[in-house]
Amino acid sequence: MRRLDAFRLFAAFGVVLLVASLGLEHALRVDRHGSVKRTIVSAWVGGQRRARTVVTRDPDAALSREVRGTRATRTAEDVLDEGPVLSTNRIIFGASFVPLRDGVEARYDGRVAIATVDDLLAWKAYDHALVLGPIRLQLGVDADVVLEALAKELGVTRAELEAHGRFRRLALRHRIPIEPAPKVNIETLRTAALSAGRYLARAVRPDGMYRYEVNAIDNEETDDYNWPRHSGATWFLAESANYSREPFMLDAAARAGRRLAQGSLADCGEHRCIAVGERADLGSSALGLLAVVELVQGGILPELMPTVRDLAEFLRSQQRPDGEFKHFYDRVKNEPVDQQVLYYTGEAAFALARAERLTHDRRDLDAASRALAQLVSYPPWYLGWHYFWGAEHWTCHALGALWEKAPNRDALNFCLQWHEAVRNTAIWGREASPEYDGATSGGPFVPPPLVGTATRMEAAVSTLRVARVAGVPAAEVERLENGIRAGLAYLMRFQFEPGPTQVMRAPGMLRGGIPTTTTDYRVRIDNPQHAGTGLLGYLKVLEAQAK
Amino acid sequence: MGASARRKKEIAFAIGNLVPATVLGAGFVALPVRFWPTDIVVGGAVLALGAASSLVFGRPELTQRALTLAARILLATGVLLVTVAVLSMAFLAGIHGDFGRGGVTLMLLVTLLVLPYAIVYPLVELWWLRTREPPVVAAPTLDTESSSAAPAIGAGSNDAA
Q1: Over residues A456-483, mean pLDDT
Q2: Which end of chain B is more exposed for a tag (fewer CB within 10 A), N or C?
């Protein structure tokens, strides 16, 4: 009898938990495909909201008289549905909104304030993660920012609003400007790739240094600088300038290239390397070599040919007999440091493979080839490499650059397997955000970082080029290409082309930029570099196919 | 069931308890911040499981009570964790709708990792503790050899069953 009671108790608990869960899910769910309930129309100037009205009909006419003849941008966001907000507790409130899809409505004493998606972007309400020790928990919105801002709009204190206010979640969709959904074709790829190149060109200052990282919302820059990223950005800038031959881009690439050659070339023992301190790192010289090769090859700075030889020689001098590189050089002791970090071996392999096209030096090809072989050789007992991947984009670039003269079938299989994993772990079918399809995930509930997708797509394009000529089965090539198209569509969707200019202080400067995530609008120079490399690479594939 | 077979199973459960204790303990240590409600529940369960296992070896007469209490605490902890996980999933599903295969897999993995340690195992343990045979009480007999075999180890701890 007691056993039966215990069983019944357990069954009852299960039923109660099930009913509670279904009830909770049902109460919170919103219909994002429903009819428009009302439309929030706003007028923006210089990234600041200046006027707002909520209408239930004729939204296209609302505020149009007020903005006529002014610099204001008129936006309209449709409310498709709404749902409750359970609590103002920071965690529950923060997690109650889908980034870029939901707005917040606050009612207090008969007054109403609304934070739309545009407001949340302008307030940078998506940027702050909740930090729990070493864990950064990215919630939907930052409760502190949103509650403070709504309280200010309602003219009350935050404490009063939290105590007596009522909150609703609004499921929103942009009506004006319409949400972009770019198709992947030659025309759109060319626009996106060159726009990324132009962004970088605009970011090069007269002294050849870049505006390294800019927040698109307030146009504020950080104080950081990083020479490997300067080199990587210059590589893509030179490549897009060589493709377009636009004088503006060619000039900017030349300035950035000269700055690299004049400001950072140093002695590493008997060799020349790129270094700014006592310790030179392989990555700076490898990416510097890539940039210089592109600048010389395109005729932008042909006088840098000796630098190509110097840097290639330095890279070769750092290589161990097993193909691996010593990643650092101590310029005080004048000796290589046999330590390894992420990326550098792949970068060096790729750079040497590219350099060989200019130097025609067999030693560059051999060094690149041995490095690539080392990168993809794993002991047969280590099954982990089939499942746990790092960012292998430089490896796949090296594969592509070497295939014609030193094909490596193991490297091809490695890259194909990696991209199978990339596709299978990408975001597909996220109900609230179908536009994320094909993106590399940063976690199930957070906006995906664009640069993660960008690096994988540029590598996928390099792999695709090889796969097509290496006799890889057509079905696998098709899967690879479908993944590329989805990933690039995602990048183009969120590229500032022009992006939500209404929330930006200086949208003209940011055009073509690739933000860090779909809600974090910081643009670092390697974001457009990686995305642009993938876009331009696939554009060239399609153009070659069309010929 | 013979006394020695029963004792072997008690010892197996005492050792078995150390597995969820270790898993929960590792989780306790891995938590990035100290939050007292979680610390009390998880830390308490770890201590209870460890203490119960010690009693099984150190005070055999308390075996039945110790194992029963530890299993109940573990089950309560498991039920609490699953409840929180399921309600969190319902909350997130309500906010995000279908959040894709990655999210479902992650939450399912969390739930499935908790279930065997903190729900299934203590249920099996409680079931065994309740359905075990009553202790063999030595009958008065003239046969000195058979009377010397009783009482069984742990026989005095049956009243909690």
Answers
A1: 98
A2: N
CA distance A128 to A355: 43
Instruction: Give the pLDDT score at A207.
Output: 96
Tell whether B90 is within 8 A of chain A (Cβ). Answer: yes
Low-confidence ranges of chain B (pLDDT < 70): 1, 99-104, 132-161
**Residue A21 to chain B, least CA–CA distance (Å):** 5
| Chain A residues in contact with B97 (beta carbon < 8 A) | 29, 32, 431-432
Tokens encoding B132: 């075990």
B80 is written with which tokens?
Answer: 């609490």
Local confidence band at A41 (pLDDT 50, 70, 90 cut-offs): very high
**Using the beta-carbon criterion (under 8 Å), do B95 and A22 form an inter-chain contact?**
no
Q: Min CA distance, B143 vs chain A (Å)?
A: 38
Would you state the pLDDT for residue B152?
38
Is the pLDDT at A485 greater than 60? The verdict is yes
Provide the shortest C-alpha distance from residue B140 to chain A (in Å): 32
Overall domain count for chain B: 1
CA A439 to chain centre: 9
Please report which confidence band the pLDDT of residue A354 belongs to, taking 50, 70 and 90 as the band edges: very high
Q: Is residue B155 part of a domain?
A: no
Predicted pLDDT at A442: 83
Q: Are B10 and B48 in contact (CB under 8 A)?
A: no
| Host domain of residue B104 | 3-133
Q: Which residue of A has its CA nearest to B129?
A: A3
| H or E segment to which residue A336 belongs | strand A335-337
CB of A13 within 8 Å of any CB in chain B? yes
The reply to whether residue B90 touches residue A427, judged by beta carbons under 8 angstroms, is no
For residues A189 and A131, is the Cβ–Cβ distance under 8 A?
Answer: no
Residue B148 lies in a domain: no
Q: How far is CA B7 from the centre of its chain?
A: 17
Q: Which residues pair with A176 in a beta bridge?
A: A76
Q: Is residue B84 part of a domain?
A: yes
State the CB neighbour count (10 A cutoff) for residue B136.
15
CB-based contact A445 B92, cutoff 8 Å:
yes
For the question of whether the overall pTM of this predicted structure is more than 0.95, the answer is no
Lowest mean pLDDT among A341-345, A379-383, A453-457, B148-152: B148-152
Which A residues, 32 through 71, put their C-beta within 8 Å of a C-beta on chain B?
Answer: 32
Spans of all domains in chain A: 30-176, 186-546
DSSP state of B97: S
The DSSP secondary structure of B117-156, one letter per residue, reads IIIIHHHHHHHHHHHSPPPPPPPP-S-HHHHTT-SPTTGG
CATH placement of domain A186-546: 1.50.10.10
Q: Name the β-bridge partners of A319.
A: A325
ipTM confidence score? 0.84
Among A17, A29, A97, the residue with its CB nearest the CB of B86 is: A17
> Quick check: B32 and A133 CB within 8 A?
yes
